[in-house]
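Researcher: Structure prediction, please.
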Amino acid sequence: MNIKNKFVVVAVVVGLLLIFFIVDNLKGNRLVGEKLLVSVFTSGEEVTGKALIQVPFLRSLEEDSQITIAVDTDGNGTFSDSEYLVSNFPVYAKENWRSGYYVVPGNPITDGMKAMVAVGEKNYDVELETKVFDVGELLDLATVTDPENATKGWGITTIQAHGDEDGVVEITQNGVPDLTQRIGECAPTAAANSLISLVAKNGGEDLIPGDPQDFIENLKRHMNWTPENGVPPDDFVDGKNRWAAAAGVPIRTTKVGDTQGLTTIEAIRDALENKSAVELRIKFADNDAKFVGGHMVTVTGIHQADGQTYLDINDPATPDSGTETVEIRSNQITNYGPWEGITVLSWGFVQTWEGHPTGELFDTMTDAEIQGIRQFVGDEPTVTVIEYNGKLLPVSQLIVEDEVGCGDKHWHAARGTVIATDGTNVPDPGPQCGYGKVKDRPSKYIPVPNLESSGSGGSIEIRGLEGLKNQ
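Model: Predicted structure follows.
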């Protein structure tokens, strides 16, 4: 072959490689988007030192892979060891979905910084887009009165695991809602995520939720939710079982693991292998190891190999939708972004479908089955209320708001008006003051009134799945 022909062959090869590179990086074929979204966490305007990096995936991968992220924080065009913020974390790429990772950057992260994302053996050059996200108000830890049992913060859900002969466990979960919580409502929000997905999986695709906020307000009532402590663990279990009995669905909730989270991961893995839905309670401690509160989460995946454990979570408190992956060491979550102290695992909560999946709209439980669950949690349900102008207002119909210029948290109607326990309508008095300050109108428990026998004509009945069966 003469020199001219060799030159032509080389030119053709280079041209083909160039074309392949260009095509592979077009939007339709590129795996990772061109901009990473970085949320820098603050609490009461103080920087926590932690951030959440979210990687947008433009297409799905058929198998799990590993991801590494480096950020050129000093702007010198290279990546030093300290600039590798994520190294070989598990990733399950989903089309049009973000995978997030909590990091502790050594230097401030700002808009426009250059970064590199490596997935498998391929590298992608990207740019950063940053925002500041304050978590202090949403956590609302200042009002907690029972830090050991409080669940105020976020929500996370889980399902479906498989392990291989080498002991490697991989869980992937699709179709779990990522509902956004309101102040202090992590527990009922996390429960709604799990229950909606479990009902849909076992009842068929026709079970589409109505308004999720209505469902969350319903669960708040069953769980005896309060703005001070959210939902204690035992009320969380009993409340979901009461809801299942009222709705006539064969779902039973049990508490697994332990309060310090030492056995919780193993219990969660076992539940996932049985295709149950799971929530996880997380406890917050300050740097002196004193517990100050906690929150509830919905886990969408678990990865275990070579002595390491990672959880995938959908966090309704993060500013943008996506799935975060966190590393578990002993009984702690490392570098959990929204909390500047120590994050410790606690109880797990398992929802089991006690029946055979039908793939069709399910029949409601029999009276005997419903009575069995009611006996499991106690026959006399209670309702959490506040007193207002001589009326008892169910907390499940209320929300807590902190308006600009008000200077304090107030009770407001979730839907413009509240049906009191005597069946009368009590409209929201208006902005700022609402039904009064939370600290001046504490909540309390009372037995659920029987309005039908009183002849009032009102209704505060415990509702079930009626909103979920309508498209």
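Model: The domain at 35-134 is CATH 2.60.40 (Immunoglobulin-like).
Researcher: Thanks, that helps.
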